Amino acid sequence: MADSTGRKPSLTSRLARAFKSKSSGEKLRKKSWGGPETRKPSISPTTATQTGRRSMGSAMRPDTDYYTDQIDIQTGERRDDTELLHSLAHTGSFDSLNQAFKEHVWHKDSPRGNELFSQLPQNVWEIFVSHLTLPAAASLALTCKVIQTRLGSDIFTILNQPLHREDKISFLLLLDSTLPKHLLCYQCTTYHRRTQIGHEKLKATSIPNPLYHCPLANEPTPIPLNHRLIPSHRLPFPFTQLVIRGQRYGPSYGIPADALSRRHRPSSSPWTHTLSYSINSGHLLLRSTSSAFAAPGLPPSGQRNLLYCPAEDYTPYFSVCAHWRDGLLMSLCKCALSHIPIPPPPITTQLHAGPAITLPKPAGTIVTLCSNCRPMRRCPDCPSEYLIELRFTEDRAEPVPSMRFKQAISVTRWADLGDGSTPVGREWAAINGTGEAYESFEHVGKRGISGVFEQRNGVTLPGQRMLSLNPKGERLGEEGDGWY
User: Fold this and answer.
1) Residue 123 φ/ψ, nearest 5 degrees
2) Helix, coil or strand: residue 84
3) pTM for the complete prediction?
4) Where are the domains of the chain?
């Protein structure tokens, strides 16, 4: 730029003017890019030294000249922020890990993993295996041939011993997801091939229905492999395995829970049964609803004839757990039967006795149970809950139309059958009366099994009191006479 005399200033004068100190009241102002008449603002050496490279934030301010801000103050070169942006984007991301992995590539002459395992001394392997459980050590031996050679076959020999039966089952359960066409047999602790893949159906106990061929199928077992539902119908444990496997791994591993649902109306008893199943948190839940028409004013012998099945050693017709004799279940059922209103005698008969008469109650009258038999009950020794009700139901088999609507007793049971992993599991063993002690009020919690089951089916139960089925804690079994 020329001065007032018309001559261009020398380099020395321009440098002196650029580094000339400013007064405290003068501020640096940046002018717009206006052409040859515009000059760049002067910056003092102190400010230039303190500022150095400007941050990217200054370039984004609206009062900042982008092109001027991109020029380095000390070197005069144009700064490229692309590398800075890329460095910020890759810091702490997966790209930085990939880059680090590519920089640390194994050389072609580096030893492989199998060779590294084989170089470890035998005593190191022995110390390492000593800290593992037997199923974990057997799983480690199956990872590769080198480790199997180093550990040997003694681990599998120990697993086959009867003393380590539970450890062998735990090891075989780890292979469950790799064998969709097989099923683990707990009698011989072996995987058998399924004979009815995808077509397994639950049938009556008297009908042979093997899911696989096992040489020990007819041998007695120390642990129960089936659970009684209703007379002549039981739930084998392999069906519990199929339902849990199908929900956990896929349809090819088992069957859906709805495939077990049934409605039974045997001709040999007055009861009607509806069985439904559901899966919650990997556990198979059961709901069994049984109902039968009951006449009013039944004597004790008539109540026993209605409630007990003589063909099964006087077990109740409806579904029960193994502790039904210890608690108040049968006493509550008899209490509910006593609440069925007795219709008054005919008016002509009443007039013979006196002028006072009692009119019959309307047919739709709802019977209210007492505070003893109305609350829901939970068995303290297993995950089972019971609800006893009286329902006004139509009896279509009644030939007289005016007598079709009757009172029926209904007993609903909800139960948790476990996760289907082993028949000695906590829930399955507790329901069948085997295994360790089970505190249902501690394990199940405040929310009942009934509420969980009905919520999954879109039904909301009204509020119910949850009481213990055995408040006194008596465990007399058949020796007690209260159940009969």
Assistant:
1) -65, -30
2) helix
3) 0.71
4) 261-479
